[in-house]
Fold this protein.
Amino acid sequence: MDHVETIIQYLSIIDESLDHLSNHNEGSLSNLPSWVLQKKKIDIGITTDNEGVVIKITPEDSLEKDQVNIFDIYTVNDVNKIIAPMSSGGHLPNKGPEKSFVLLSDMSVVEANNPLAIPVLDNKFMVGWGRTSGFEDTFKESKAKAEAVSLWNAASSGIKTKGSFVQEVRNIFDKFEAIIKRKAFLERRVHRYINEHKNIFLPEHKTCLYEHKLFLNGEMRKADFILEREQGLSSIFIELESPVHNVFTKKGDLTAPSNHARQQVSEWVKYVENEPQTNAKDDYSFLTGPKERMVVIGRGLENRDRLIDTKYDGVTFWTYSLMLEEAKNRMNERLSSQYKLLGLDPVKPF
């Protein structure tokens, strides 16, 4: 297969895979790289010895089908013309180590501390350069579906990756495991970390309300998290307590902090049910429906069965360790089902 066939086949498989993966969750398509699910201008440069390749893939709305242009590369200037405004760093692509190939995609530069500023640089393309062996290894058909899964999960989870989605999520899990043990990261700092990665740590949901204000007779309370789930499923009210507290006493009863947290959740429910005209109007109407109550407190998995059984008492208790375990299980199930959908062997990387 020549260079043109290789890249066309790879990009086609990614687009077709994303068509399948995005079904029923089309809103996340806007988070995908610019060059997928678009007609593309594909510029390919090849060194005269056929040992080096340069590519630039640019989305072009005006095209009816993908356009491929082939160039011969004699000098570094030829490389830079293809990948402009990027630069090859003064090297021809056939001079790097065997199987080396560099990819860069979608770069934007904005004025600091001004979120409304027009980007100074807003490049929408993918460029790559390196050895022919690296090009062939990077754009294997067998890798295209796995790359589509990585791109889709990054987009749908709101995670900005520099490469592997799996590696990025592993980093998120590792940091979570570390900070719940640090005194400097107790309570709100842990909560903010969870909020930043809510699509990973929290149960599946349509809407997530963080530190949401609830009112009753002029008094106000803040609910740590309230999740709206798919139609027919109960919303979840989640209270987060400190990782340093124990869930149970040595006798197996709830500790004082656990009981306090349970009362907090019950109070939020009371606020909603006694003053729905304030708390459950418009976009928050789902709050009047069935509700589940959850408390996350403490660390460890030694009482896993006892924790799971708490759901029968009206309030489900998790430790932060169980939250992490459940997040890993959900992510493994998600990836496995996506791999199966695309005809790949299921994986469980977490």
